[in-house]
Specification:
Blueprint: H1 5-13, E1 22-34, E2 39-40, E3 55-61, E4 73-81, E5 87-93, E6 100-106, E7 108-117, E8 127-131, E9 137-141, E10 153-154, E11 159-172, E12 179-186, E13 192-193, E14 197-200, E15 205-215, E16 220-228, E17 233-245
Antiparallel strand pairs: 1-17, 2-16, 3-6, 3-8, 4-5, 4-7, 8-9, 10-16, 11-15, 11-17, 12-13, 12-14, 12-16
């Protein structure tokens, strides 16, 4: 059952992020080159390639400095879901431009981040998470960013996500421009809808949407750009949500 506004305010006041029945979830999406749309808000550009089955994956860097003993990124944690929509977190050591297998196959990738580094303190190259054998790219960590920048997220089994704030900005070009974004929700069989459409321009803004967009368990969520007034448009779009256990344990 979703939270009401008063419940969210009370939880924030008492530090709800420390209570295991509730979790704050934030996703920051970035697409640096949108020409006409539709395109999803992730660094890979175009529409996000959702997996259709549990998939063996690998990770590789564009730089030889991203290795277990290198000056760049050394280890990366990948957070995702298996085909039962259970959460799986895996940390792997990088091997530069040679691909490294991610041990457990995944059905969804909810994000990845650099955990340890050498003297450079961040990844030296672009880190690509892709299907094993050099297949489809599923997530990216851009050079010098240390984390994925994707708005796409799937609610794990046993939880309900409530998205309560949208944050967006057009970064480039600097001339007059505008765009239209929409929330993307897809059920487990792949059918999707764009229930909430909103306009953005060059001014950063946060849009509270209480009581929020409800994303049930096993449901995909993201932000999609449906229109841009200018080609080569660079947009950042993020969302903030509260994720709640469907069956809250007695403490």
């Amino acid at each position: 059952m979703p939270l009401v506004t008063s419940e969210i305010n009370n939880l924030v006041a008492v530090g709800w992020q420390e209570w295991p029945a509730y979790r704050r979830v934030v996703a920051i999406g970035h697409n640096s080159d949108i020409d006409t749309g539709p395109e999803d808000m992730w660094t890979g550009g175009g529409l996000y390639p959702w997996m259709t089955a549990s998939t063996s994956l690998e990770i590789v860097s564009s730089s030889t400095a991203d290795t277990a003993l290198g000056t760049g990124a050394r280890t990366v944690t990948i957070n995702g879901l298996n085909d039962a929509y259970d959460e799986v977190s895996q940390t792997v050591s990088l091997n530069g431009t040679s691909a490294v297998s991610i041990p457990t196959p995944l059905y969804r990738i909810n994000g990845a981040l650099v955990v340890t580094t050498g003297s450079g303190n961040v990844n030296a190259g672009t880190l690509t998470i892709r299907d094993a054998g050099g297949g489809t790219t599923r997530a990216l960590i851009s050079v010098g960013h240390g984390t994925t920048q994707q708005s796409e997220y799937t609610t794990p089994a046993g939880y309900t996500l409530q998205v309560i704030t949208l944050v967006s900005c057009i970064n480039r070009p600097t001339s007059t421009r505008d765009a239209t974004l929409a929330t993307y929700i897809a059920n487990p069989n792949g059918s999707y809808r764009l229930p909430f459409e909103y306009s953005v321009n060059g001014q950063p803004f946060a849009l509270p949407i209480l009581p929020g967009v409800i994303v049930p368990e096993k449901t995909d969520f993201g932000i999609r750009c449906t229109y841009v007034s200018t080609t080569n448009t660079d947009i950042t779009a993020a969302w903030i949500g509260v994720m709640k256990l469907n069956e809250i344990p007695v403490i």
